Amino acid sequence: MAKSLSPxxxxxxxxKTNCGKCGEKNCLSFATRLVNLEVEVERCTPLVExxxxxxxxxxxxxxxxxxxxxxxxxxxxxxxxxxxEYVMYRHELTYRRPTAIxxxxxxxxxxxxxxxxxxxxxxxxxxxxxxQLKLDLIxxxxxxxxxxxxxxxxxxxxxxxxxxxxxxxxxxxxxxxGLAEMSGDKPLLYAATKDNWRRxxxxxxxxxxxxxxxxxxxxxxxxSLVKTMLECGLEDLVLDPGTMGGEGLPDTLVNFTMxxxxxxxxxxxxxxxxxxGAPIAVWLGGGRALDKKWEECYLAGMLIVxxxxxxxxxxxxxWVLLPLVMLxxxxxTDPRKxxxxxxxxxxxxxPDETSPVMFTTNFALTYYTVxxxxxxxxxxxxxxxxxxxxxxxxxxxxxRKLTADRVAExxxxxxxxxLVKHRYLIIPGRASRLSGxxxxxxxxxxxxxxxxxxxxxxxxxxxxxxxxxxxxxxQPK
Amino acid sequence: MSGEKRGSKTRRSLEAIIADxxxxxxxxxxxxxxxxEGVEIEADELELEPIMQAxxxxxxxxxxxxxxxxxxxxxxxxxxxxxxxxTEYPGSIVEVKIGATKSEGGTRSKTVVLGGETVPAxxxxxxxxxxxxxxxxxxxDTRIPLAxxxxxxxKDVLDDPAEWAKKAVHKFGAEVVNLHLVSIDPxxxxxxxxxxxxxxxxxxxxxxxxxxxxxxxxxxxDLKVFEKVCEVAEGERILINSVTLDMDFKKVxxxxxxxxxxxxxxTSMSMDDxxxxxxxxxxxxxxxxxxxxxxxxxxxxxxxxxxxxMERTRLAALMGDTELQHPISSGTTNAWAAREAWMKLDESxxxxxxxxxxxxxxxxxxTLLLAGVDYFMxxxxxxxxTVKQVIxxxxxxxxxxxxxxLNWVSSTF
Lengths: 477, 413
What we know:
The structure holds two protein chains of two kinds.
Chain A: H1 7-11, H2 27-35, H3 45-49, H4 54-63, E1 70-75, E2 78-83, E3 100-106, H5 111-123, E4 126-128, E5 131-133, E6 137-141, H6 147-160, E7 165-168, H7 172-179, E8 188-192, H8 197-207, E9 211-214, H9 219-232, E10 237-240, H10 249-266, E11 276-277, H11 289-305, E12 310-313, H12 318-331, E13 344-348, E14 357-361, H13 364-376, E15 381-386, H14 393-398, H15 404-414, E16 424-427, H16 435-442, E17 445-448, H17 456-465
Parallel strand pairs in A: 3-6, 3-12, 6-7, 7-8, 8-9, 9-10, 11-12, 14-15, 14-16, 16-17
Antiparallel strand pairs in A: 1-2, 4-5, 13-15
Helix pairs in contact in A: 5-6, 6-7, 7-8, 11-12, 15-16
Chain B: H1 2-7, H2 9-31, H3 49-58, E1 95-98, E2 112-115, E3 134-140, H4 148-154, H5 161-170, E4 176-180, H6 193-206, E5 211-214, H7 219-232, E6 239-243, H8 249-258, E7 262-266, H9 271-282, E8 290-293, H10 303-318, E9 329-330, H11 339-342, H12 347-350, H13 353-371, E10 375-378, H14 381-396, H15 402-405
Parallel strand pairs in B: 3-4, 3-10, 4-5, 5-6, 6-7, 7-8, 9-10
Antiparallel strand pairs in B: 1-2
């Protein structure tokens, strides 16, 4: 934790009744989990509900406040949280709120196009380690500068999606027209600049919405804007230091890095807000759409690594967005949690004594991918998970964490030899160079499986069920 | 929401019960090792929304913070100062030179220097690092399975490493050629050391850039081949890829030293292993002969580990950890192990794999560039071009057009 809090310091502000309502054995263990950011303080219901603890609750909230403020963008029941970060580098603890990705629609687009884009954003989803990778927000831009048109388009968007919004215009009158359609919600307003800040502040105060302050390539001006907005009574701010591809790329990344470092290493509270990146800016100026998409993708990727908390993008192509949602997931994965599964024998479906025996490694992603491929093909089988210290097949073979001896040991310990009549072991294609050694170490006959588990169904269809290895003369040893 | 719920008491209590059970389940999930055997959940069979609402309704409302009294807004912008937050780093990375020109005893017309950093990657507000990261291309001495998008680019040279190397340099812009002697694997072709060394000589003749020579991963065979290769390439200062903890590293190091080369110390995502291997190599080699590789995993397949180990390694080195002050090499080609990089997916949703593959390699490379990688081993020409462009932009500097930037809000795209 940035301020290196001690659990004891936190414990002293808890009720100390060890009531267990939070699910922990006692208040001290709840305090430890709070310091490790594993639970929210609101799990301690007495602290929140009972008047006697009110003062301590406020103190505790303050004590646990992240150096990068958490800002909420709200639409009905849907909330996108950005910021709330406690560390500069993920290995110092963990990052918390994955970079939110907003896709734009603009008020010069037809109703049909807007509806189609919004639908695509809503429906975007890619299955990954047991979850769906999704997009988060719609950014509505005013290109026409016409408030009436903007409010019309906001309405169209609202009719087509329940996703939270970012409203984008440098003209407060235009934003106001959009806000009028969204009573009760808190869209993110883009943006206050050195020129329009006063009217933007009034608007954000009147509608109680989070506000972006923008000062392209000028951190001093950005701080000045923040200071002024805080003086106005606004607290939910998002910082836009400017995003540019091409020649502007170095400054862009350096600004993001300097700002985040100023928060965590120099204690600069004025910069302690979420950072907004706008890879969409690469679309300015001419050029081929394909080149723009390409650049928007890798620029967004670099910003996800270098501290962006929210991104506004224009490309909707799957090949642009898929690497980004995956990168975001990787970077925001808690590095303290091992991404491995328990080694051992897993049954998939209802295997019997003639079912195939395959092995894979205990890297969680490898395991989930392989088992879901086998499951979706509805093949009853035994999947032996070999302990490779959480490495994938390829890395484990290269790093000698997957060896014939380890496979032999795992096979023996699993007891699978009592469960099947045959002695055929299907090994991952990426471990094919070990096939001879595995045969020697295990005494089983090795069948080299496909390079990727997506090929398992076809492989079994050709190599397993047709020869019926265990029948007739081909009875395995 | 809560008003409605109070109206139908039975339903609420049922939901509350489910919510409690779920809370308990969440808690158990967090506490216990996840046990997956026999568990099958069909996501669309579950009706989560009402239950989630019930949970949400149970989450206590935070204390209302009183709104500050309305006061007049400031008339003009308040001033603030910004000073870039600069750290003094006590450590720096050694420079490792690859390749040797005629005057240096070799035959290369270009050489590269890896490392030399005094600040983290692209912290240009703290200082400028002396040597831009280097991009090399992979060349294999035998046919191996390649992703379609890659194979299409090199199909005319697949059986001739020297021609492949030429294409990598002249057409794709390789600054260094990475020759992988895959065929020496006793489990594949078991090519003898003399023949493998011949391939190295051919490639050295075909191109004038420095070369890096990789083995097959068999500790015994690699040793034999590396010894021979070091001998025939004497004076060229090639980079041997790689020495590992489980091989006779002392013998490899001695061969590298005897013939004036450099070596990559490969470890598997462990800073402790990296330090240990380096300590052992120091007994034979000067620091200036060692590059480290802490393992690269593909985007989506462990990139987070690779990234964090590299970032930590670099920061520790700059903060004074003398056993980690080496340039970092990355087998970025591993990006192609991700199925999203090469597999046919629904094209209307995820685009052609001809784009997905190279962009996968780009995003993997640029993520690691930001962690501090000095030496990239890459494969797809399009990915190579982009990564070199990004590195160039950082090296040349450039202008951020702040007047233009905000136009994105109101432009038609």
